[in-house]
What we know:
Elements: H1 3-7, H2 21-39, H3 43-54, H4 59-66, H5 70-99, H6 104-121
Helix pairs in contact: 2-5, 3-5, 4-5
Amino acid sequence: MSFDEEAGARPEPRAGPVESPTDALxxxxxxRLLEQRIDQLPAAFRTVFVMREVEDMTVxxxxxxxxxxxxxxxxxxxxxxALLRESLARDLDMAAADVFAFxxxxxxxxxxxxxxxxxxxxxxxxxxxx
Length: 130
């Protein structure tokens, strides 16, 4: 029995909907991939990206901390975002190719399912696909 239960305190209800395990896993995987791609950025871009996007520092605060002009902070952040977009787009393109690959056992299952539907739906009709 916990202290709260002994004291008769009720747990406070959670705000918002409860996340499903599948959604939590998906979000964790996206977070892991994003962290990997941020780690792969060149140090100058990664530093500015983290200070601005993660630490939520202003352009002036970032510039002062790094000892660089504010225009350089803006340029590095712009380039860091572009590099991340390109890297993530490549990852998604490769993943999409894997998802829609049409070969092997998966291909055989799909072809078998299509033929089964054709045979069931076209009883008595001539077969067009052989």
